[in-house]
Design brief:
Layout lengths: L3 E5 L4 H4 L2 H11 L2 E9 L5 E2 L2 E2 L4 H12 L7 E11 L2 H12 L3 E5 L7 H5 L2 H7 L5 E4 L13 E6 L9 H11 L2 E8 L7 H9 L1 H27 L5 E7 L2 H11 L4 E7 L4 H7 L1 H8 L4 E6 L5
Parallel strand pairs: 1-2, 1-6, 2-5, 6-7, 8-9, 8-11, 9-10, 11-12
Antiparallel strand pairs: 3-4, 7-12
Helix pairs in contact: 4-6, 8-9, 10-12
Amino acid sequence: MFAHLLVPLDGSPLAESVLPMTGALAQTLGSQVTLLHVIERGAPVAIHGARHLTDADRAEAYLADAAKQLPPGTRVSRHVHTVKEHDLPKSIADHAAELGADLIVLCSHGRRRLRHRLLGGVAQRVAARGRGPILLVPPGEVGAAAFRCQTMLVPLDGQAAHEQGLEPAAGLARACRASLHLLAVVPTLGTLTGEHAATGQILPGATAALLELDEDRAEAYVTDVVARLAKTGLSVTAEVGRGDPTAMILETAKRIEADLIVLGTHGRSGLDAFWSASVAPRIAGKAEVPVLLVPVGGGGR
């Protein structure tokens, strides 16, 4: 699994903050790493406080220096796309397909004023294309301690399609000798959204009864998934929470000291819905730990 990691770098320390985790994953999984720089058409003079790389030779030298931040023995290659591109996210996704990369590693967001630009820009649009898994890594200092994966949080919503996200989570857990913690969240009357919220206001008693039934079903569901995964030798725990899904996932990740959150997400069939309504972008924008987005089949959220 994840035999080839693609790491787009724009020349900024913010983008480079993914390198410690990339190196740790490459060592654990025996993965090849490709460092990518795409020269943008009409690029700004500076990007995230660093001078933008618009010259192929300088970009190649930059990637060579960046490669030195990876652990010794890492199989690393460099690729500079010299044809100026106006659609950076598309170019990154296309390169992943062309180079045979099965995981793209990106910085998820910047601190405060940079957060909207990054999550609302490159990282969001690359992830939304849904061609393959995307690992979104919160920004950190260059040279930070290598990533260690001991506990992984896997939110589930009971949809069979989203269980496709369990396979890479289980594979990564085995490789890292990590434990899995499954979380199913059932909304309360106060945290329902959209048409469900309107129904809850009109028929609060009936809606509350249905939510209680959903909680019972969620308990049975996660118990079944735990049993199935435990049979494969994995260390698995689970719980059912009540409340707002985004808040519950983030609170649980902090409480159990999760090192990684794994989310099954829908791909191209509902890009606008995915990025406007799904919990995934809200989690990726606020999580203090890396988030692995795994595209799955089925209908949109």
